Amino acid sequence: MLTKEIKDEEIDFVETKKKASPPTPEIATSQKKEAIFLSTLKLIHEYGFHGTPMSQIALQANVATGTIYHYFTSKDELILELFKYCREKTNEHIFQFDEEASYKERFASVWKRLVHYYVENKEIFRFIEQFYSSPYYELMQQRKDPSYYGVDRMRLFFKEGIDAGIIRDVNFFTLVSIFIGPATSIIKHYKFNQFCKITDQDRDDLIEIIWNGIKNQ
Amino acid sequence: MLTKEIKDEEIDFVETKKKASPPTPEIATSQKKEAIFLSTLKLIHEYGFHGTPMSQIALQANVATGTIYHYFTSKDELILELFKYCREKTNEHIFQFDEEASYKERFASVWKRLVHYYVENKEIFRFIEQFYSSPYYELMQQRKDPSYYGVDRMRLFFKEGIDAGIIRDVNFFTLVSIFIGPATSIIKHYKFNQFCKITDQDRDDLIEIIWNGIKNQ
DNA sequence: TGCTACCGAATGAACGTTCAGTTACTAAAT
DNA sequence: ATTTAGTAACTGAACGTTCATTCGGTAGCA
User: Fold this and answer.
1) Ranges of H-type helices in chain B
2) Nearest to A173 among B136, B177, B186 (CB)
3) Under an 8 A CB cutoff, do B212 and A213 touch?
4) B215 pairs with which residues across the strands?
5) Chain B, 125-154: which CBs lie within 7 Å of strand C?
6) Residue A3 approaches strand C within 7 Å at CB
7) Which SS3 state, helix, strand or coil, does residue A78 take?
8) Any idea which nucleotide's C1' is nearest the CA of A54?
9) Which pTM was predicted?
10) What is the tens place of the pLDDT at every residue in B15-73?
């Protein structure tokens, strides 16, 4: 088949089946599945939830339309799983810090890593933002999914600061809001103003303002 | 026609044409147009951008599908105009404060009015959030639309505080992010956790944290 | 032989938009 | 005062397209 041949040549980030035999299935995400994720991410970044048909997702991922339905039961399912995928990747990245560092230093480190990660991975950022403000998020909450400890990690991190008397003892959601809110907000502002970028000065200012706000005076 | 009769009885917030003669056309938004706006807002709140077809918008608004196209050239146009409508209504609401009050008081007042407005108008909040993180926002920016002074008002308000030496002299976007970011963030958190609501304590904590962060020490 | 991964044309439903027409009202003409 | 012509508001069935999903089938492997 001509179509097939052309496609094989186009493949760049998806390896062919023969190369990597599956030694540990289900441990690593299947390569096709990953390709579908990346393709969806790219398209949603550019065209939004509406405006990214399954056919295009398949095309970008170099798979057949039907293949997507081998991995996901529906488009909704795909988007729901993609969200989990993004959330895990983000959490894995930001919670890496020097255990020896002071609480203040670790606090700033996690915050800066978050901003940096989202700036470098605009597609993930945009997708997560869209997801949170869409009905998908409520759909996900209805299916109780216990396999998410990102929030717990954050909760523990704040608790440590509160117990040590370093930061103010306020509601967890209040802390989350003051931590994440300004980060996502500034990324959005600069994404839209494509001429200028977030400077190190901006980041330093913001995290200092946040810290001044929540530290015990 | 039977259909027509039933519809006339269903009308509640849309007055019939005969009642209010149009004394100043185009000054107030047409009632049908407003009904279409409200209907769209309601549906998008519940089903997202995808998932709210024109047919449903028309149904909710008690108009024919074709009528929407009398006011808007396309669905995109409708959503773009709805965004302006929401933004204006929000801005009108939040910038109302006692001119005599201190800067700190006015600062807190605007912030609390913003949170209050979004909590009371979840549909507007959700729509604006979805809009900002969708490709529509960039679409809107491409069409240069000079008729928006909301940002300028904010800019002026911050400038006043900086010039008076009350708040830190940092980048405008940094200030906007620390002002609006935590507000939208906490509203989202509580919207999803439908069991608990934002308390006055939460609001007071947050605005105090924000203020401590940006005030000149 | 059976199973899993994968393919892509076919299907049918849903959607945005159009359009031929109706209604409601205004203003000029009679 | 009544008719007439014109216009803007409005209608909803119809159209053509697009899309998510299905399904009959192939390829490779155990």
Assistant:
1) 2-10, 31-47, 54-61, 65-71, 75-94, 103-120, 122-132, 135-142, 150-163, 172-192, 200-214
2) B186
3) yes
4) B167
5) none
6) yes
7) helix
8) D20
9) 0.86
10) 333 333 333 434 567 899 999 999 999 999 999 998 999 999 999 999 999 999 999 99
